[in-house]
Design brief:
transferase, about 500 residues, single chain, 3-stranded antiparallel sheet, SETD3_SETD6_MTase, mainly alpha, Rubisco_LSMT_subst-bd_sf, set domain protein methyltransferase, domain 2, 10 strands, set domain protein methyltransferase, domain 1, Rubisco_LSMT_subst-bd
Length: about 500
């Protein structure tokens, strides 16, 4: 997950003799952001200086100030996928890039406005900041009303979850949430009281966060520290496999809430894989099952667990260190771990009791050079004009470059042949993928299992995305043909007029 730092500084820039004093807000994009260069380029394209400074004054509405701030904050808060597709509207900024980006941007603004209010140097500064806060809160409310989903809470036995919550509170956890099962979404959390914008709903003390520090004080550490090249993450896997079965464990109530299986793609059965056949995900899961994932983990398991159980059976009991137990621990950390910055400033990979029941972003460890390109449903784009077609500009420019037109041409001077080549290339890539999907499935499962249901939903979405890309290519080709026909007609008319002029001159 990309770590983005935003600082909000207040600087008085008004003149002492001026009756109207101005203040400025400064947003800073951290140079430590792995996407810094790409975000900086997009900020430049949107007209923001290197220091993103927005002025506050009583003569300018708080709405105008908010619009400038949120436009910059949206770019600062982008993840890789949002940034990749952002170029669709470089010249026509959109209102938001994704629900997640919008909420992160609004929350960051509100948080830093509150911080600045606590250190306001004058009544005038405080008044301007409060106006800006009211504007931000109002936008959050409107956005929430437009994107509200009704959720039905299922009746269930949440004894283990309630015991976890009680244990957490006894150790300093503070929350305004309770664990619940939501119809169609599974286990999560709901508010137990009305919340206002900016409320802190969950505070978790470091003492109940599972990190490598717990391995260092365990009996197994004296054995593990003598091993060469063993990482803290591997130690945590081994520690979790045993701690899960320890009835005296400090984290017993947490382990009791964990599922016996995590229902990831690696757990897909034969029927689900059959439903996925022809999709991109099918190849990925097969590769993970047969090659990379299992072979790597199997090698790691064979190197560690049998030897530890043989040489130290009193610490590494064989019944806790089977292959299935090892896979369970791997999926636990893969699906539930979070990156947490502790009070000592160190970033650690952790399991966070209770917070693990909430949605969170995966660690952002992707390739930011965009050597691999992406597409999405073109219905998500607001720009379907010539040269854009609702398709990612990064992908289009890559293909233009490959076909010898390195830059996006101006609308008044379209390279028809090159643009046609770009769209025909894309069509030739995606059309076989659509053919590989075959006809839409007619579900014959009366009560499909979780994996079959997910497989069918995924395949339907992939089919819709591919179909939208193909349609955009065809529409783009039709428009290019129309432009070419108009150009040819114009040339013909010019020739006719030239011939007429010559005939008139000849007759004279």
């Amino acid at each position: 997950m990309s770590t983005v730092e935003i600082t909000l500084n207040m600087d008085s820039v008004g003149n002492m003799g001026n009756s109207e004093q101005e203040f400025s807000l400064l947003l800073t994009l951290s140079k430590e952001d792995p996407l810094y260069e790409k975000k900086r380029k997009l900020l430049d394209a949107r007209g923001f200086d290197h220091d993103i400074r927005v002025f506050l004054s009583s003569s300018e509405s708080s709405h105008a100030t908010f619009k400038s701030l949120i436009s910059a904050a949206r770019i600062i808060e982008m993840d890789e996928a949002e940034l990749y597709f952002a170029g669709v509207d470089v010249l026509q900024p959109v209102d938001f890039y994704s629900p997640t980006n919008e909420l992160k941007s609004l929350n960051s603004l509100l948080s830093h406005i509150d911080i600045s209010l606590n250190s306001a140097l004058s009544n005038k500064m405080e008044q301007l900041l409060r106006q800006l806060k009211y504007e931000t809160v109002d936008v959050i409310r409107v956005y929430g009303d437009k994107n509200r989903d009704e959720a039905k809470i299922e009746i269930c036995n949440c004894r283990a979850e309630n015991l976890l919550l009680q244990w957490g509170k006894e150790h300093g956890l503070k929350t305004k949430l309770q664990i619940a099962h939501v119809e169609g979404a599974g286990r999560g959390a709901v508010a137990v009281e009305d919340l206002t914008i900016g409320d802190t709903v969950l505070e978790i003390p470091e003492s109940i966060i599972i990190s490598e520090e717990h391995v260092y004080v365990s009996e197994m550490f004296e054995i593990l520290k003598r091993m060469d090249d063993i990482s803290a993450e591997t130690m945590l896997l081994l520690w979790s496999m045993k701690e899960r079965h320890n009835p005296e464990s400090k984290f017993k109530f947490y382990f009791d809430t964990l599922p016996k299986t995590f229902n990831t793609g690696l757990d897909f059965g034969v029927e689900a894989l059959t439903a996925l056949e022809g999709t991109l995900l099918f190849d990925e899961i097969i590769q993970a099952k047969e090659l990379e994932f299992n072979q790597h983990l199997r090698s790691q398991y064979d190197t560690l667990c049998p030897l530890l159980c043989r040489d130290h059976p009193d610490v590494f009991q064989p019944e806790f260190y089977s292959w299935d137990q090892f896979l369970w621990a791997c999926e636990l950390w893969y699906s539930n771990s979070m990156k947490v910055i502790f009070t000592d400033g160190k970033l650690r990979t952790c399991l966070v009791p209770f917070a693990g029941l909430l949605n969170h972003s995966a660690d952002d460890s992707g390739n930011h050079d965009w050597t691999t390109h992406m597409v999405r449903g073109t219905w998500l784009s607001s720009n379907h004009e010539i040269l854009n077609y609702g398709l990612p500009p990064t992908l289009l420019n890559y293909l233009r470059s490959a076909l010898k037109d390195a830059e996006q041409p101006k609308d008044s001077n379209v390279n028809i042949d090159n643009e046609r080549g770009v769209l025909e290339t894309l069509y030739s890539i995606f059309n076989p993928m659509m053919e590989g999907h075959g006809d839409p499935d007619n579900p014959h499962w009366e009560s499909p299992s979780w994996d079959v249901k997910l497989a069918l939903e995924y395949k339907d979405l992939e089919r819709r995305i591919i179909s939208s890309v193909l349609q955009s290519c065809l529409t783009g080709l039709e428009r290019l043909q129309l432009i070419e026909s108009k150009h040819q007609l114009k040339c013909c008319l010019t020739c006719v007029l030239f011939d007429l002029a010559a005939a008139v001159d000849g007759s004279g």
